[in-house]
Design brief:
By secondary structure, the protein is an alpha+beta fold. 20% of the residues lie in helices and 48% in strands. The protein has a 6-stranded antiparallel beta sheet. Strand 1 and strand 2 form a beta hairpin.
Length: 104
């Protein structure tokens, strides 16, 4: 599998994943913060879109807020690493996914 095929597969997954999140109304993240001066927690909701950033053989899929364009918040979801003919997926709830061959 070439780099362009791998990139296209990831982009197709993200397109379908974003559409699924919008259809199921799950296109947001809720973050709870501890506010020390009030001795309580504060819940903040972020409207997000899942995007990919890539470096040499590493792809980061993360949720990005659509807020102010300079200070966008990024929440990591999955990191995909490709070594020769093996693919490694790490991130949230991916402990049961083992390394696999690119063809799979």
């Amino acid at each position: 599998m070439t780099d362009s095929d791998f990139n296209n597969t990831i982009k197709t997954f993200l397109k379908d994943f974003n559409e699924m999140c919008r259809a199921d109304r799950k296109d947001f993240l809720i973050r709870e913060k501890l506010v020390t001066y009030e001795h309580s927690t504060r819940t903040q909701r972020y409207e997000v879109t899942y995007r990919v950033r890539s470096k040499s053989n590493i792809w980061f899929i993360e949720a990005v807020t659509d807020g102010f364009w300079i200070f966008k918040k990024r929440f990591p979801l999955i990191r995909i690493t490709r070594n020769k003919d093996m693919v490694d997926i790490t991130g949230v709830h991916t402990g049961s996914i083992r390394n696999f061959k690119q063809e799979e």
